[in-house]
Amino acid sequence: MRILQVPMFVFAICLTSVYFVTSVEGADSAVNASSSLSYPSFKALDSSFENIMSKVQSIKAKIAKTLNETSSNRTRHELLLEEGYNFTAGMGYHKLHTVKQDWYGALRFCQRGGAHLAAIASSNERSALGKMLKQRGQLESQTEEVAYVGIHDYCKKGSWINVYFDVLDSAEYLQWEVGSPNYVQTSEVPNCVAVNGNGLLMNLSCTRKLPFFCKVGM
Questions:
Q1: How many CA atoms lie within 13 A of 64 on its CB side?
Q2: Torsion (CA) 166, 83, 204, 144 in degrees, nearest 10
Q3: What is the three-class DSSP state of 196?
Q4: Which residues, in sequence order, are CB contacts of 140 under 8 Å at separation 6+?
Q5: Which of 75, 106, 189, 204 has the CB geometry, 3.0–4.6 Å to 212, for a possible disulfide?
Q6: Is the separation of the CB atoms in 213 and 151 below 8 Å?
Q7: Are the beta carbons of 152 and 193 closer than 8 angstroms?
Q8: DSSP character for 113?
């Protein structure tokens, strides 16, 4: 809805016109004694003008309040979609960030945005992330088809936990790429987990910089 805003100079013109008409008709009254018309004083007009401006300001305040309430009533779902998240029923919202970070940088980045580094909780979710990664790779040829998720073995080598510190050693949805987990190249450092375009998991040094998935729950 567009609101007509009346500039201050318009009110000034109106005020000047009223005063001019009052002066002219007052002069005519001096010539024509039969006229008994009376006109408001400048003080009265000034008071009326202040009342009008006060009402205008009150209306503007109400409009601003209404617009603010309308904006705040937008759903969480709409806001997340606008931020670039993809919604998957039963899994939540995921967003692939292609600006590469090491695993710890990715963890902090997601947290600063009110999300967390995606903690895969099912085979369907793992496959969905792989599909998203492959689709982005097809659109952007320079996108690496592997991205960090929220799983690591920081506490004990080979014992996988997620960012909530849930132990995942017996989780059936941890399906690995051929040759993974591979501890030869990461024997001296903690391992962090990434998903590839096939929806399978790989272990890598946590210091390697990769794209990553942030997740917001349902």
A1: 6
A2: 150
A3: strand
A4: 98
A5: 106
A6: no
A7: yes
A8: T
